[in-house]
Amino acid sequence: MYKMADMLYAVLTVFQGYCLQYFLGSFLERRMKGRWNGLCVAVLYVVLRMAVMWVSPPGYEDYKVAVGTLALSLCIISFLALCFYKAFRPVTVFLIVSFQAVLDISRYAPVILLNVVDGWVLDIINWLVGKDVFQSEKAIGMAIKAGVAGTQLLQYAAIALLLYFSLKKIVWDFREKDYSINRTELLFILTPAAVGLMICMLLRIIMIMVEDSVPKMLYDRYPVLVVVIPAILLLSLLSILYGVKLFQDMICWNREKSGRIVLEKQISSLQEHMEEMERIYSGIRGMKHDMKNTLAVIQRLPAGDGELQDYLSELNRSLEKLEVRFKTGNTVADTLLNMKYHEAVRDVPGLKMDADKLMFPQGFEIHSYDIGVILGNAMDNAIEACRKLKAKEPEEGAFIRLSSLQKGNLLILKVENSFDGRLVRRRQEEFPITDKADKKSHGIGLANIKSTAEKYEGTMDFRVKDKVFILSVMMKNERRG
Fold this sequence. Notes:
Strand order of the largest sheet: 3-4-5-7-6
Strand content: 5-15%
Structural class: alpha+beta
Order of helices and strands: HHHHHHEEHHHHEHEEHEE
Radius of gyration: 35 Å
Helix content: 55-70%
Number of domains: 2
Shape: elongated
C-alpha cells in the first residue's frame, strides 16, 4: 500500500512539473528553443521536489519545518524561473507565489474533504463484514486495501484536476501577458496568492496536534473543520482566480478610457479647426477665381512690356498650384489627407498615396468629425507601417491607397498600405499588438476606428494579403448625435 502511495506521489510530482513549465512558459520568454526548455524545467522540478521530500524530517511538522519547506519550495520555483526563462519582470513574483499557493490549496482541500470518504469506505466494509459478505480475513484485507487505494487514487486525481484547471484559468484570464505591471498593481494581484500561501502554511503547522504523545488531526477533534477548512481554502483559491480576472478587466477599462480621451481630443481638435479650414479654403477658392479673372483682363490689355506678361503668366501658374491634392467631396477629409500626406513624405521618401477612388456622395450624412477620426487613425497607422517598412527594407515600395464604395445606405471605406509583413496577435486579443514602447498610450487607433464605426451601426475589419494590410470600415450613411 505504501508503494502505491509513493508511486502516486511520484506521478503527481511529475504532473506538477508539467503544470509549472506550462504556467511559466505561458507568461515568460524561454531561454531555449523548442520543447527542451519545458522538459528540463519539469524534470528538474521532479528531482528537486523528491530531494526535499527525502531530506524532510519524518513525522508531523512543527512551525520551523513548515516555514523551511515553504521557503525551499519557493526557492525551487524561483531557481527554475530564473534559469530557464527571461524572468526579470514584476509578474514573475506573482507567478512564483501564485503557483505555490494554488499547489498547496489543491493539495489540502481535496485531501481533507475526501478523508470523510475514506471513513465511509471503512464503515461500508465493516457493515459488509457484519452481513457475512466476506468469508475470510484475506477477503476482508483485500477489500480494505482496495477501498484505501481507491480513496487515495481519487484524492490524487482531485488534486491534479484542481491544480491544472486553476492554473489554466489564470493563464486564460491573464490576457495582457506583456503588460508592464507597476508596484501597486503587483500588490493587488499578489495579495490573494500570498494570503492563500499563509493559510496553507498555518494549516501545515496546526493541522496535526499531539494528545498523550499520539498525533491526531485537528478535524478529528473538531469535525466541523472538515467543511470549514476546505471552504476557506476554496474561497482563497477563488480570490486568486477572480483577482486576476478583475485586474484584467481594470486594464481593459483603463484602455477604453484612454481611447475615449484620445477620441475626444481628436474630435475637439477637429471641431476647433474645421470651421477655420472651411473659411480658409473658401477664401482661397474665391481669391483664386478673382485673381484669374483679373489676370485674364490684364493680359488682354495692350502692353509692350514682355517682362510683365511673363510675370503675369508665372503668377497664373502659381495660382494653379493652390489646388488641393486630394478632392473627396468632404472638406475635413481633403484637409486631413493633404496634411497627412505632407507629413508622410517627409518621413517616408518615395511614398505613393492614391485617394482617387475615395469619394463621398451627395447627401452625405456621417458627421465630418467622425470621418476625420477614422481617416486620421487609419492614416497614422498606415504611415507608421510604411515608415517601418522603409527602415527595414529601403528598396521596397511604400504606398497607401484609399477608396470608398456606396451600397444602398452603407458606406464602405477601405485603406490599403504596404508593411513589413510582421503582424503579432495573441489569443483573446482583437487587435494586433503594438511594438511601441508606451503600450498604454499607443495601439488604440483601431479601437477608436471600431468605436466610431459602431456609432453608425457599422463595423471594422482588417486582413493581410502578402505584405499589404487592408483595413475596411462599414457604416450606415445616417446622421447620428
